[in-house]
Design brief:
Helix content: 25-40%
Order of helices and strands: HHHHHEEHHEEEHEHEEEH
Strand content: 15-25%
Strand order of the largest sheet: 1-2-3-4-5
Distance between the termini: 58 Å
Largest sheet: 5 strands, antiparallel
Shape: globular
Number of strands: 9
Number of helices: 10
């Protein structure tokens, strides 16, 4: 129908989903919080962008949204239609970002000695952009990020606290005896997994929570990722009441896999998967999945290690 124009095909799928299929299904879904096409568009686009979509692209979204981002919104919509995603949860997240709903706020930070996990600041923009532009840091990612991409990601990461009550914390180290303060070393924390993924539970966007980290080279080899992840997981499993978390990475990312194992996470090789955002033949496509139950983490003493 759209030979040689994949972007046009994505736009047509979006219009069909939002203008026709979702509104047509609404009368038979009494639990859905919205019924109108523009409301479905708002919810799906905001969740695909990690914040109000108009801050990311100019209107109309269907014409100006990058095809990959619009495809992510379509995947969410398809999951809603298939009853694999909770439209009410997606709507609440969108309304939080737009200032229409309030929720219990997350603490300003978490501490373990001189190690500090805190909310994001605008002063983090430059070091975060430098981190994302470092080929060594990003060697297990498809590519480095531009400054504009980093700024958008920083805002989206911090907004997760507004929507979910938890998120990826900025990592800092305060000055200790004989040491200097390090105001930004990367991030460590938890994120609600919003993209459908090919493993058990991953096909239900918003259902699973992922723990992850990305540290600047200055933070490597010091055990900071493990310490900070323990701190974040304890908060996630106690204050937030989350019952389990997952983590995944490219199969060749040995440093991150060691952190997952030190946290007490377990891997079933049968759950290894090909990441849907990476093309066949990409050396990073094969991923490993680790899981951790809150009860196991808290009972094992990992939180206090």
């Amino acid at each position: 129908m759209f030979p040689g124009d994949p972007a046009a095909e994505v736009r047509a799928r979006w219009r069909d989903l939002v203008d026709r299929r979702l509104p047509a299904a609404a009368p038979g879904r009494p639990g859905w919080p919205v019924r109108l096409d523009h409301c479905f568009a708002r919810i799906l686009l905001d969740n695909a962008c990690g914040g109000p979509w108009r801050e990311r692209v100019a209107a109309p979204a269907w014409a100006n949204m990058p095809p990959a981002r619009l495809s992510a919104a379509i995947e969410l919509g398809e999951a809603v239609l298939a009853a694999r995603a909770d439209l009410d949860l997606l709507d609440r997240r969108s309304l939080h970002w737009r200032g229409k709903r309030t929720s219990e706020s997350a603490p300003d930070g978490l501490r373990d000695g001189t190690l500090l996990l805190r909310r994001w600041r605008r002063a983090d923009d430059a070091p975060f952009a430098a981190l994302n532009a470092d080929p060594a840091v990003m060697r297990h990612f498809p590519d480095v990020k531009s400054r504009a991409e980093s700024l958008w990601e920083a805002r989206a990461l911090d907004r997760r606290f507004e929507a979910d009550g938890f998120g990826p914390w900025a990592l800092a180290a305060e000055a200790g005896p004989g040491g200097q303060a390090e105001p930004f070393l990367g991030f460590v924390g938890a994120m609600r997994l919003m993209r459908p993924m090919p493993f058990a539970g991953g096909d239900r966007p918003g259902h699973l929570v992922e723990v992850g980290w990305r540290l600047a080279r200055a933070g490597w080899g010091r055990g900071l990722a493990t310490r900070a992840a323990r701190l974040a997981l304890h908060d996630l499993f106690t204050r937030c009441g989350v019952e389990a978390a997952v983590a995944f990475t490219a199969a060749g990312n040995a440093p991150s896999r060691r952190v997952m194992e030190r946290l007490g996470m377990s891997r079933d090789p049968a759950e290894d998967f090909d990441h849907p955002a990476l093309s066949p033949g990409d050396p990073l496509r094969r991923h490993v999945l680790y899981r951790l139950a809150a009860a196991d983490f808290l009972a094992s003493g990992e939180a206090a290690a």
